[in-house]
Amino acid sequence: MVRWGRAARATLGGIAAALVAAAMLAASPPARAQAAVEPATLEGAATSATDRTPVRLDADIYTPAVTPAPAILIAHGFGGSKESVVEEAQILADAGFVVLAYTARGFGRSTGLISMNAPEFEVADASALIDHLAGLDAVRKEASGDPVVGVAGGSYGGALALLLAGYDARVDAVAADITWNDLESSLFGQSMRGTRTPGVYKQLWSSVFFSAGLSSPPGRASTCGRFTPAWCAAYTGAATTGSVSPAMQALMRRSSPASVTDRITVPTLLGGGQADSLFPLQQVNANAEQIRAANRDTPVKVVWHAQGHDRGADESERLRGLTRSWFQQYLADGPAVPLDFEASLVAASAIDQDDSGTVEVLSSPRYPGLSGESEVPVTISGPPQQILAPAGGLPAALSSLPRIGSAGRGLSLLGQGVAPNQAARFVSEPIPEATRIVGAPRVSLTLSSDVARESAVFVGLRIQTAAGALVLPNGLVAPVNVKLGPAPRRVDVELPAIVTDVPAGDRLVVTVNTTDQAFRTPDAPAVYRVSLADPVLDLPEVNMTVSTQGIPLWAWPLVALGICVGVAIALRLLRPRVKGDTVRTELEDRPLVIEGLVKQFGKGVRAVAGVDITVPRGVVLGLLGPNGAGKTTTLRMAMGLIRPTEGSVFVFGERVTPGAAVLSRIGAFVEGPGFMPHLSGRENLDLYWRASGRAGDPCMDEVLEIAALGPSIDRKVRTYSQGMKQRLGIAQAMLGMPDILLLDEPTNGLDPPQIREMRRVVRAYAREGRTVILSSHLLGEVEQTCTDVVVMHRGLVVATGTVEELLAGRSGQHLEDVFMDLVGSDHMANAGPLAEGDH
Amino acid sequence: MDGYSARRTLSVRLEMIRQLRRRRTAVALALVLALPIVVVLAVKFGPSAGGGGGGLADGDLDVFGLMATGPWNFALSGLLFTSAFLLVLLAAMFLGDTVASEASWSTLRYLLVAPVPRRRVLVVKLIVGLVSTVAVLLVLVLASFLLGWIAFGGEGLATPLGGELGAGESTTRLAIITGYIAVTLLVPAGVAFLASVSTDVPLGAVGAGVLVVVVANILDIIDALGPLRQLLPTNYASAWSDALGPTIVWGDMAVGLAYNVGVFAVLVGLAFLRFERKDILS
After folding, report:
1. Of the residues A516, A543, A570, which one is the last residue of a structural domain?
2. Quick one: A671 and A716 in the same domain?
3. Contact: B262, A660; criterion CB under 8 Å
4. Beta-carbon neighbour count of residue B2 at 10 Å?
5. Is A554 domain-assigned?
6. What CATH number should be reported for the domain holding residue A335?
7. For B171-224, how does the pLDDT look when each residue is reduced to its tens digit (9 = 90+)?
8. Residue A736 sits in a domain of what CATH number?
9. Which is it for strands A71-75 and A423-428: parallel, antiparallel or unpaired?
10. pLDDT tens digits along B157-180
11. Within an 8 Å CB–CB cutoff, is residue B179 touching chain A?
């Protein structure tokens, strides 16, 4: 029990220490002021064109400690609800805003049907919520019915934020993240420049996206889920045919911020995700450029962060902080947020991208768009190649997978080998100097097809490292939908926008694939011919300054070193110290002097309660006492194994402390032998001697004679009997013939002839001026062996003297009688404070 | 004092001799030698020989499919299989068994009265424990490598991100990964070492080291703990996979190094403080 208790405490201590150390490495989350949260069901706009009853929107209103305060409307992502934005809402409420987080119509507990942010439905809902905010006392107002209000959201909520800013003049600031500018070009990817042809249907993403609105109670599936009939029909058509109908085009246009960007004049924070194959950076770029084009003076800040619908590296903390600062500046006169362009540089190709530790934030004063500030031409080459568009579009290459960016990227490269005849490659020479790509590189191809038809190809820019591996940054490919025939046709491709470093010596590889699992491709087979229209790849470059997030790389080993040095210093300072004299020259020729020795274990009784013993040279001292008298504890203190509570022990005038050098003059046998069971008796003695740090002759032969083990000395100790170990233990104590021999119950387990032999050995040992201290409960034994006796009882010395002195005047009596008189018969009933040997 | 010198007491070499012939050392070595042999036999002659397949809990790396492609990949897969538990167990054993086993043999008190200074006992035991752990790790890697070469030929390291590295680059990567895995063993090793000075039951100390990793693994699954999970050693256990990419990304490994070394230093420091003040009752 005692042992396990100690082990458990040590484990807890270990865990605590680990936590402490780790806490030094991780920033602690800031303390939170409490904002009150109240759920509410609020009225939105009409349910549908025919049913004018307002939808009921499930909302939470967060009220900060100080009011009136500016308000922020938070819209959630597709498939989410007010619960999915709790953290954002809490942060803004803690920053002193009234926050209205609500579930959009068609989701969660809100009523109504999903209309994909249609102006007359979802956008009108949000306007109705602003009306509600205008009626709250806690909200600050510019005029009656016009609250100070910002709107924030990501993805579906981001588009709502932009659309609302376009439709409702009361919105004062916007923060929109990873959202679309144009829904059509998001769902039908087209990277061919200078065309208005609809792109390649992004079937995997679209299905994942729309399925969130098709959810239904288990076992009661329906075709349309919670979509309006118009959107249901549009989606069903697209998913079935892979092409876009004019009706759907019209619907998507009305739900796209592109339709209102020319009307947005309030400060707008636009976030775009590099790890986003659903709404790629092209979308955020379009939003930014359109808002800027409408009015040069509108404050717009663009951030290309490392997150996105494909997950990417986690930067949520930084982005939430940025959103908060944005609203603080424009709604609450907070400090200015610089309008510089920020782009996150993720250390190339970390497999585990979840960590923000590998992200550097680059900054440039001006937003450069997708084509950068300057373009670096890189020559690429490769012969014209024929590639197969397989029947059924399978097997298909794998570039990115919804919501699994990193694995998807890995798979994309493994997938390269699946069907090499479906991909063409054009490779550059090793790049002479390191290049940083910030934006969308461009390449021009010449394409033709053996059958005339609408064809899809997927162009990717891969980096081939000097080590030979191929990386497709963020798993992004540029889909191209183009009518091809036998006549060659030039296609200018805008590759996916990326932020990446290309080290010197790496090669750039332009790949052209006929398939991609994320996209719908024609079912009929064809062979395309691909060549370079221009042997040049244009890389966009932006001159950006770096502000590293967190601690730079080189600092970490220093942190480790610092902790080690700190621990070393602490250990040096915290060395156990001894109070009082360490040397007493007047005791130089006393083998052992014990003064006022006290030992108290914990808060219990004193095991040793003030012991004074002086042992002269050349004696054989018997230490007597009943069990629990404190003999063993005293001996252990005499050897520095136990720290005395009070008092001191001197050996030849030197203070005994743990590991004191003077202990080398003591040979000890305490509480039974201790040997390594896997080694022989001889090896044990030999290794012990070598570990003892003593020079000189170990007197091995004499000692082995005393052990009297015969040939067994070379057997493993594991096989020894108790008596054999006992003799070996005493022999070990005599190694090197030390000045003091300290034997605790040496005769345990020995038979009478061995006891007699031991008696002889001990007496002979003391004869040459050496001292033997021997504790025993065999009184007859002590009487026959010892010259002097110390009797202990209940932690105290009750008698000392030579055997003769103790027996003086007691003719015919034995030590036993003296002992019984001293100790009394009570020791049987009360065995003393500490049951010795019970460890 | 009779030619006594604290510096001549228990040396690292002597401690090696004392520990080397223990059965557990032989068992540990046999285990890490047997493992690659078993895997080679399984891959060559097993029921699904030739097929890739198989999946790992993390699901990210298809190592089974790659392991039979050459000595580097084979050695790497050996590390992957053992790093989560076997190596942790061995590290905890070599460090947890240090002082506690001496206590259980009753040899500790004889070493201390020889006298071997208490600090020296710990330093020597710590060095021998760490060296043993590293030795077992190296034996595992080298044995896997040689066996992999014999069984699968000398193809370079294929990375999960595609592409194959040259022999020199592959060796560098394997060395980095081995080194980082050694670093990640420091936390369980440190816990076991601290437990070792606090108990006379060697198995209890070894268990404490393993327990920390097991508990950390359980806590790591609980999403609700949020950022607190960054404090768990498991958070840094797999950063070595960053050395498998086309270029090596040091970020996570640097943090992992600081974390593991830092925690280890603190744990060892506590062990020293405790042992120096402890009453030796064993």
Report:
1. A543
2. yes
3. no
4. 14
5. no
6. 3.40.50.1820
7. 998 999 999 999 999 999 999 999 999 999 999 999 999 999 999 988 888 877
8. 3.40.50.300
9. unpaired
10. 766 555 567 788 889 989 999 999
11. no
CA–CA gap between residue A621 and residue A610 (Å, rounded): 19
| E strand segments, A306-347 | 341-346
* Calpha distance A222→A226 (Å, rounded): 9
pLDDT surpasses 80 at B249: no
DSSP state of A662: G
B144 in contact with A, Cβ within 8 Å: no
Q: Are the CB atoms for A277 and A399 separated by under 8 Å?
A: yes
Q: Does residue A342 sit in the same domain as residue A423?
A: no
Taking the Cβ of residue A20 and every Cβ of chain B, the question of whether any pair is shorter than 8 Å is answered with yes
User: How many other CB atoms are found less than 10 A from the CB of residue A124?
Assistant: 20
Tens of pLDDT, residue by residue over A794-803, are 999 999 999 8
State the DSSP string of A557-582. HHHHHHHHHHHHHHHHHT-----S-S
Cα separation, B148 vs B41, in Å, equals: 11
Q: How far apart are CA A510 and CA A382, in angstroms?
A: 10
Return the structure tokens found at A517: 């699992």
> Does A439 share its domain with A327?
no
Instruction: Indicate whether A465 and A530 sit together in one domain.
Output: yes
A107 in any annotated domain: yes
Q: Out of A82-86, A206-210, A418-422, B17-21, pick the least confident.
A: A418-422
What value of ipTM does the predicted structure carry?
A: 0.90
A156 conformational bin, left if phi > 0, alpha if psi -120 to 50, beta if neither: alpha
Residue A800 structure tokens: 């000392």
Contact B241 A665 (CB under 8 A): no
Tell me how far apart the terminal alpha carbons of chain A are, to the nearest angstrom: 11
The pairing of strands A545-548 and A36-46 is unpaired
Domain extent, residue A466, equals: 374-543
- Considering the domain architecture, whether residues A488 and A598 belong to the same structural domain is answered as no
Integer Cα distance of A626 and A580 in angstroms: 32
| Contact B9/A at CB under 8 A | yes
When CB atoms are compared, the residue of A11, A643, A674 closest to B279 is A643
Structure tokens that stand for A822 in this block: 């001293």
Q: Is residue A779 part of a domain?
A: yes
Q: Of the candidates A344, A334, A368, A408, which has an alpha carbon nearest to the alpha carbon of residue A150?
A: A334
- With beta carbons under 8 A apart, name residues in chain A contacting B258: 25, 556-557, 559-560, 563
- A460 inside domain: yes
- Domain count within chain A: 3
DSSP string, B165-218: --HHHHHHHHHHHHHHHHHHTHHHHHHHHHHHTT-S-HHHHHHHHHHHHHHHHH
A400 at interface of B, judged by CB pairs closer than 8 A: no
To the nearest whole Å, the CA of A607 is away from the closest chain B CA by 13
At residue B246 the predicted structure's pLDDT band, cuts being 50, 70 and 90, is: low
Residues of A in contact with B18 (CB under 8 A): 676, 679, 687, 691
Q: What angle do CA A524, A526, A530 make, to 5 degrees?
A: 145
pLDDT of A207 reads 87
Mean pLDDT calculated for residue range A329-358: 75
Going from the C-alpha of A446 to that of each of A192, A456, A457, A496, B244, the distances in angstroms are: 12, 14, 12, 19, 36
A639 and A505 share one domain: no
State pLDDT tens for residues A496-529: 999 998 888 889 999 999 998 889 999 999 999 9
CATH assignment of the domain containing A419? 2.60.120.260
Q: Are residues A606 and A738 in the same domain?
A: yes
User: Could you tell me if A260 and A403 lie in one domain?
Assistant: no
Integer CA distances (angstroms), A345 to A190, A303, A503, A544, A549, in order? 26, 12, 14, 11, 10
Nearest by Cα to A806 from A793, A820, A789? A789
Count CA within 13 A, CB hemisphere, residue A181: 21
Domain boundary among A364, A384, A419: A364
